[in-house]
């Protein structure tokens, strides 16, 4: 979900725009992944994108949606239209952050299509390949035999925590991107 939110923000937004965080954006559930935005904060769109993609900030996703779409509902309409235009025909979004909603669903194939288009935007790749806390996020390859050989390809790994109250299991999904930016492998590790 956040990949498409980022894609739309990069396609239609101005990274240098300043966004005033609304009460709605700041008021996310305490057990939800957030960046810690407060109502009235003024943040550049590019910084909201980093917060959403690297910290999985649901507050940042709402702030982006309100800024780009005018409201969350209008942004969700944009998401569904954009998904169809990208060929993601078995997908329906209900929010910009991916928290559970019975009317929010997708398929692995549709996620692949959305991710491929997002990867075509240079700034998207800058965000998801960003070093976090001073180091590049990579799991111990010995824990993931299929990834052992991929680390020899000089890959970059981006990671997104996956956990909602309605998940049967929580874990992380890792996207592995080759130097050509054409290879995407998604490996889910569930706890």
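^ Assign residues to that structure.
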């Amino acid at each position: 979900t956040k990949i498409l939110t980022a894609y739309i923000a990069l396609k239609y937004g101005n990274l240098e725009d300043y966004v005033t965080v609304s009460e709605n954006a700041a008021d996310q559930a305490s057990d939800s992944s957030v960046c810690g935005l407060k109502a009235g904060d003024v943040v550049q769109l590019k910084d909201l994108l980093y917060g959403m993609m690297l910290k999985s900030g649901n507050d940042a996703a709402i702030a982006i949606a309100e800024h780009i779409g005018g409201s969350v509902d209008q942004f969700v309409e944009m998401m569904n239209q954009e998904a169809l235009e990208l060929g993601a025909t078995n997908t329906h979004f209900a929010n910009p952050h991916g928290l559970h909603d019975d009317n929010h669903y997708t398929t692995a194939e549709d996620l692949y299509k959305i991710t491929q288009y997002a990867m075509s935007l240079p700034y998207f790749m800058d965000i998801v390949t960003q070093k976090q806390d001073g180091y590049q996020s990579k799991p111990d390859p010995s824990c993931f035999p299929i990834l052992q050989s991929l680390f020899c390809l000089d890959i970059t790994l981006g990671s997104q925590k996956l956990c909602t109250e309605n998940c049967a299991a929580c874990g992380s999904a890792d996207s592995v991107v080759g130097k050509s930016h054409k290879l995407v492998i998604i490996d889910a590790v569930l706890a």
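Residues 133-185, 187-191 have pLDDT under 50 and may be disordered.
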